[in-house]
């Protein structure tokens, strides 16, 4: 039995590397709310360059990044945003766009690949002559990669088409790019090209990239000027934030090149899971660092399986009443993958034989908690 914990609950569980910690300790800082933190300024300028946009802004979280972006584009109450019915903004962000911004969500069904049909997006756009009765459509939101459909990548061709729809109707396009670098690496498309059609993009720094805290939003200078005010309004104006930006800079510099390894490990996991009789997994659906698998035997529930795995120091997350999610990241090794597969196989055997002991999960996971 190994003493190390193999944590596959999410790529949000990564710990900062020694290089990140050293950068944090050495960071030159000042008051960022006053616009004076030099490390934050350098990091934001670098992210704007990488993403091909005019400006960038560091925010404490991806949820705040998406909220600030939506509110910046929809600055009139009674605005409406078109977004996927299975999107992170719609499901996992506490309804912030409506409760805090008075922005109405109009959902379009997400397809299994994370896209929304173009014709359905167009049909959801409100006609201006209905302003007496309807909210005013001002924004379309995409998510890339799309978490709830297994980390699927939206192609540059699809994103461009949605951008064309937005532009032709006088709308803005925001991309929830929490894992946009995973999509870029998997598709072999430079990240700036992948988001060229977008008016704004949020990028999580504390998922696969491994920074301890934060996200960044990018867009035009005018957009970022509005976003700074909204960030402050929402309580996201922080002082010597360069300490966090220093770690984020190292994360972008050092970890993007490792994302392909995470994707490979996810595919190895999926391939190994497919060999276990009681488990079904669609190998073709594993495009990035997420693996969703279904349990075919009704005697084995995701909660039970995750409880037994935790006893073997493997942490996983129930995704539904019959499925489990595993997420690879840069702190998961090849041996961790093989150990996980061995543990899952033995856990299945223990549960079916009646020898498994079930205890309440202590790793913070709950059913349907995979909005991370």
From TrEMBL:
Source superkingdom: Eukaryota
N6-(pyridoxal phosphate)lysine sites (modified residues): 207
Keyword match Lyase: yes
Pathway: Amino-acid degradation; L-threonine degradation via aldolase pathway; acetaldehyde and glycine from L-threonine: step 1/1
Membrane spanning residue stretches: none
Catalytic activity field: L-allo-threonine = acetaldehyde + glycine; L-threonine = acetaldehyde + glycine
Molecular function GO terms recorded: L-allo-threonine aldolase activity
Aromatic amino acid beta-eliminating lyase/threonine aldolase domain location: 7-294
EC annotation from Swiss-Prot or TrEMBL: 4.1.2.48
Keywords carried by this UniProt record: Lyase, Pyridoxal phosphate
UniProt keyword Lyase, yes or no: yes
An example Gene Ontology biological process: L-threonine catabolic process
Protein family (similarity comment): Belongs to the threonine aldolase family.
Function in brief: Threonine aldolase involved in threonine degradation to glycine. May play a role in the removal of L-allo-threonine.
Protein's UniProt name: low-specificity L-threonine aldolase
Species this chain originates from: Triticum aestivum
Lineage, uppermost ranks: Eukaryota, Viridiplantae, Streptophyta, Embryophyta, Tracheophyta
Gene designation: LOC123046120
């Amino acid at each position: 039995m190994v003493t190390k914990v193999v944590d596959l609950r999410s790529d949000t569980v990564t710990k900062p590397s020694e290089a990140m910690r050293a950068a944090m300790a050495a960071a030159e800082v000042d008051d960022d709310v006053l616009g004076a933190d030099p490390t934050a300024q350098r990091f934001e300028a670098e992210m704007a360059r990488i993403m091909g946009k005019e400006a960038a802004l560091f925010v404490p979280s991806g949820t705040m990044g998406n909220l600030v972006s939506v509110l910046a584009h929809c600055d009139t109450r009674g605005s409406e945003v078109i977004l996927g019915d299975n999107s992170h903004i719609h499901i996992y962000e506490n309804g912030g766009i409506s409760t805090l911004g008075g922005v109405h969500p109009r959902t379009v069904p997400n397809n299994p690949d994370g896209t929304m049909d173009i014709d359905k997006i167009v049909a959801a756009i409100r006609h201006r002559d209905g302003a007496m009765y309807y909210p005013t459509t001002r924004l379309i939101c995409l998510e890339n990669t799309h978490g709830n459909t297994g980390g699927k990548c939206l192609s540059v061709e699809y994103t461009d088409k949605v951008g064309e729809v937005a532009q032709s109707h006088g709308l803005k396009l925001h991309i929830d790019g929490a894992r946009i670098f995973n999509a870029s690496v998997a598709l072999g498309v430079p990240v700036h090209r992948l988001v060229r059609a977008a008016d704004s993009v949020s990028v999580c720094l504390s998922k696969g990239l491994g920074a301890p805290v934060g996200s960044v939003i990018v867009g035009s200078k005018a957009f970022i000027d509005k976003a700074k005010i909204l960030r402050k309004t929402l309580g996201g104006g922080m002082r010597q934030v360069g300490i966090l930006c220093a770690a984020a800079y190292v994360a972008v510099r050092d970890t993007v090149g490792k994302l392909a390894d995470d994707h490979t490990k996810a595919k190895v996991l999926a391939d190994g899971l497919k060999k276990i009789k009681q488990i079904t997994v669609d190998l073709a659906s594993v495009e990035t660092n997420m693996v969703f698998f279904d349990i075919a035997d009704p005697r084995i529930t995701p909660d039970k399986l995750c409880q037994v795995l935790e006893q073997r120091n493997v942490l996983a997350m129930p995704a539904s009443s019959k499925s489990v999610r595993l997420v690879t990241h840069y702190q998961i090794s090849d041996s961790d993958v093989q150990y996980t597969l061995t543990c899952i196989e033995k856990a299945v055997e223990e549960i079916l034989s009646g020898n498994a002991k079930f205890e309440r999960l202590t790793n913070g996971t709950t059913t349907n908690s995979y909005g991370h």
